[in-house]
Amino acid sequence: QSEDSDKSSAESDSESEVEQVSGYRKLLATLKTSPESESEEEEDESESEEAEESEAEMDSKGSQETGEAEGHEEDKNDVPEEEEGTTDTAEQMLSQEQADGTDASCDPRHGVIEEFTDVKHESEFSLETNFMEEESEDCNADRRDSNPFKQHMDKELEEKEIEKMSTLPKTSTQSQWPRLGQVIFSSTLEKHKPLKADKEVDVKQLHLHKPLESTWPKVNKQFLSAVNKPIDSSFTPLQRELFCIMNSYRDLFYPERNALTNGEEIRHAYCLHALNHVLKANAQVLSNNAKRRDRKPGTDTDDHRDQGLTRPKVLMIVPFRECALRIVHIFISLLEVNDKKKIDVSNKKRFKGEFGSDPEEKPPNLKRPEDYEAVFAGNIDDHFRIGVAILQRSMRLYAPFYSSDIIIASPLGIRTVIGAEGEKKRDFDFLSSVEILIIDQADIYLMQNWEHVLHLMKHINLLPLDSHGVDFSRVRMLNLNNWSKYYRQTLLFSALQDPQINSVFNKHCLNYVGQVAVRNVPLTGSISHVVAQLPHVFRRLEADSVTSVIDARFQFFIDKVLPEYRDAIMSHTLVYVPSYFDYVRLRNYFKKEDLNFTHICEYTKKAAVCRARRFFLKGEKQFLLFTERFHFYKRYTIKGIKNLIFYELPTYSHFYSEICNMLKATDSGVDATWTCTVLYSKYDAQKLAAVVGIDRTAQMLQSKKNVHLFVTGES
């Protein structure tokens, strides 16, 4: 991760050391110490939280060392170790990754010593040697021209259209949908007109493959309310509009996913689409197998081009093992017509053991916000990957990647298979013919390591380096022409709008049918949820470009903001820093200036966190540097804050109100000396709108003056 590049285990104050670390070194450090899997386990957190709420306990925790020694101990504790031994360990682990990405050794910290691959069921799930059991009506329906799958995959693009998509800008149109709100359609090929929202959907008109037409209404019943009309009994209003877009095979970006409210209904909708796609694709191959078997000797035909250069068709990127567990459970439910017709699932027990969690492991006294509980439910290991093969009424878990239809993985899990340039054992051929890419909960990857997502996007839909035993007479021309990326559908779900996520959608989603993005603007902003009465001062800094804003912010902070807080009167000042690079830079500067401060980041050990919180609460340290990722992964309440500085606006808008409301944690009354200062630039428009609302944002970006807002409770 970008934050893993801190070299201050050697206590260097040099910022250049931080900035010059290679991406490869960052990855190695990531593998050694990922924020959510370090020694601060959930069990430890409960003890830590309880201890920190009791001052006497905090004293005993902090009595190990005193004075400067404690400060130095914190310095050592909160930095990921990058000594030679660490690097060697990570390199050895990387070198153990096998080419097919399925039989490598996992990091023991994640609870899996050796990665398992199912090799026993290879012939049973082979697409080459199996045939359609019966030529059903469903197969005939799949061949109809109105079938979205056939329409999309059988479309033959011309060279001039490919050139047009590669060179010309996209044209956009806007539409207002009942549930999604403002929807932006964009496409390079003009003939693809915007969709209209279906007010009602008959499941029989969706061209769902057997048995999904009958199982979907039962599986989705939990999300439906009595207000839905009988004809629309199988989809919620949100699912109906999302599936309408998915089923048209357009790229989709939906930035309003909420783990508490709509997360599961969205997961069900994209699982239905992914499974429908795989079943249709496999049915087409099996049906053509039978035709080729029954054809007369000597007859040769080119009509059976029905597959890609490699088998995996769907890649699902999710943040935690719990998400993969839920997806597989949805797949199983969708394939089981009734209790009597259970499907055969290979390695199900092993899967539940490795991807499930023990409810008793979580301490009952751990109190966190509802959204935290929803995001971090179940097994939250973030290093995994699993291949899934589906053939008619059977499912094979832990299938080798080249025998899988669906791959479910975390960004880190897929990253360690792809590897880095120069490594001997690396593989990304299995990504060559992915037809649907689903990236769910994209905002969480900003808190993990966004570089892994970018690395994946650079290696998907490339021509494979090896043939992997493919029958080229069955490969679609679009794959042979290296046009897969123009046919791939990308479904991107996030809890927020963010420039990095937008960039992936705009630059890497090239679907010839076009793109659909939901772009609603926040009317009020999270500042309305601040209950602590305090003045909010938004200070605008000027920067010439997005790249220069990092240095401009640092200079603005040390020249204009920090001098106002150096006085001892301005004690109990918390500096909230979203970027770890900025955190390291500020920490080095604070050390250099010999300021009285302490600091907490996602790598800080439990004891050091206790000490830092105690020093800050008692006023022994004037400043507390505090990273956004620590707040994301731990959500501790920091007591003793009197002055707040948001070095940059938070990634999650609700973190703004959460941090502001911490001022009331020490004293329920109102302190007339409380302050809150926020640094922003014109490049922070999206984050600013999420905090103060769109109307105030427009005014603040037009004016170059500082903006003073006073919030009086739930305003």
From TrEMBL:
Annotated stretches, region: Disordered: 1-111, 287-307
All residue ranges annotated as the UTP25 C-terminal domain in the record: 527-710
GO CC annotations, alphabetized: small-subunit processome
SUPFAM superfamilies referenced in this protein's UniProt entry, alphabetically: P-loop containing nucleoside triphosphate hydrolases
The entry's keywords: Developmental protein, Nucleus, Phosphoprotein
GO terms of biological process kind: maturation of SSU-rRNA from tricistronic rRNA transcript (SSU-rRNA, 5.8S rRNA, LSU-rRNA)
Bias type Polar residues, positions: 87-99
UniProt function note: Component of the ribosomal small subunit processome for the biogenesis of ribosomes, functions in pre-ribosomal RNA (pre-rRNA) processing. Essential for embryonic development in part through the regulation of p53 pathway. Controls the expansion growth of digestive organs and liver. Also involved in the sympathetic neuronal development. Mediates, with CAPN3, the proteasome-independent degradation of p53/TP53.
A single MF term (Gene Ontology): rRNA binding
Statement: the UniProt record of this protein carries the keyword Oxidoreductase: no
Regions of compositional bias (Acidic residues) in chain numbering: 37-57
Annotated localization: Nucleus, Nucleolus
Primary site of residence: nucleus
Subunit structure: Interacts with CAPN3; the interaction is required for CAPN3 translocation to the nucleolus.
Protein name (database record): U3 small nucleolar RNA-associated protein 25 homolog
All copies of domain UTP25 NTP hydrolase-like, residue ranges: 249-516
Similarity section: Belongs to the UTP25 family.
Amino acid composition bias (Basic and acidic residues), ranges on this chain: 1-10, 69-79, 296-307
